[in-house]
Amino acid sequence: MTYHQHMQGCLSLEQKTLQPFKKIAEENGFHVYEKQGLDNRIFLEGKSNFQFGDLRVNTPTHHVVIEAESAGGVTNLVKYWYCLSENAPPTHISLPIILIHVFQQTSKNDYDSHLKLWDFLWEKMQKEIDSNRIQAYKFPYHIQNPSEFKRAIDKFEMSLTSF
Questions:
Q1: Exposure pattern of 28-40 as b/e (b: 16+ CB <10 Å)?
Q2: pTM of the entire structure?
């Protein structure tokens, strides 16, 4: 398998993961921001930017962001730390963020080191960033046992109406 084929497979997994969140948002009358479009970026200085979630919904009081991992890593957590830190360049993040980070696992040990780093980073972030600016939740789930995924969906649905 080529790198390009692997990445296409990852994108397909992410899109499948995001479908239920998108459906719920649209059923509740929310516009969904997704993918790499101009309206789904956090612009930094110069031409630098971050994707503002694999899927994002803006409520009147906060942003609800879904980050779906199919290739691992903690970049999708640490980028919000950077953007919300005191030393960050100005961004267009004007509302608090609820981050729902889902990790699809095919075995118990998938992402184990990444999940440990996620917990470590989140603990550090909470000491630096006011909890009124960001709340973050991780949901690793197994394909064979999607109960954690259901918890992520429930958290998303509740987050559409409250921070």
A1: eebebbbeeeeeb
A2: 0.89
How far is residue 124 from each of residues 14, 63, 100, 127, measured CA to CA in Å?
27, 22, 18, 5
Is 4 domain-assigned?
no
| 114 belongs to a structural domain | yes
Structural domain contains residue 54 = yes
**Phi, psi (deg, nearest 5) at residue 47:** -100, 10
* Number of structural domains the chain divides into: 1
Contact criterion met (CB below 8 Å) for 83 and 51: no
Q: What is the average pLDDT value for the chain, to the nearest integer?
A: 87
Question: Which residues are CB-neighbours of 145 under 8 A, at least 6 positions away?
Answer: none
Mean pLDDT of 136-150: 86
Which parts of the chain fold into alpha helices (H)? 3-27, 75-84, 112-128, 147-159
